[in-house]
Amino acid sequence: MTETPDRFAEKIKKVRKQLVLSQENFAHELGVSFATINRWENGKVSPSRLALKQFKLFCDEMRQQGKIDD
Questions:
Q1: How does pLDDT run across 10-47, given as a tens digit for each residue?
Q2: Which of 8, 11, 22, 55 is exposed most, by the fewest CB atoms within 10 A?
Q3: Nearest to 24 by CA among 11, 8, 13, 35
Q4: Count of Cβ atoms closer than 10 Å to residue 65 Cβ
């Protein structure tokens, strides 16, 4: 499953906003840099397979905790 930068940008923005986190705080939660979150949200780069997997695991955890509805 390949994630296009635009589609991933929409997903990551939606999740971050549902969690009411700044890009910097969201980056900390995911274990990446602020610049990485910024590039992802602007559709400049696609996440690596590892980063995409970690993002999906993070989202699964947040869904289980009732923090996002994505």
A1: 999 999 999 999 999 999 999 999 999 999 999 989 89
A2: 22
A3: 35
A4: 8
- Enclosing H/E stretch for 26: helix 23-30
pTM for the full model?
Answer: 0.87
Neighbours of 13 (CB within 10 A): 16
**Separation in Å, CA 38 to CA 1, 41, 64:** 23, 5, 26
Q: What is the end-to-end Cα distance of the chain in Å, rounded?
A: 18
Q: What CATH number was assigned to the domain covering residues 5-64?
A: 1.10.260.40
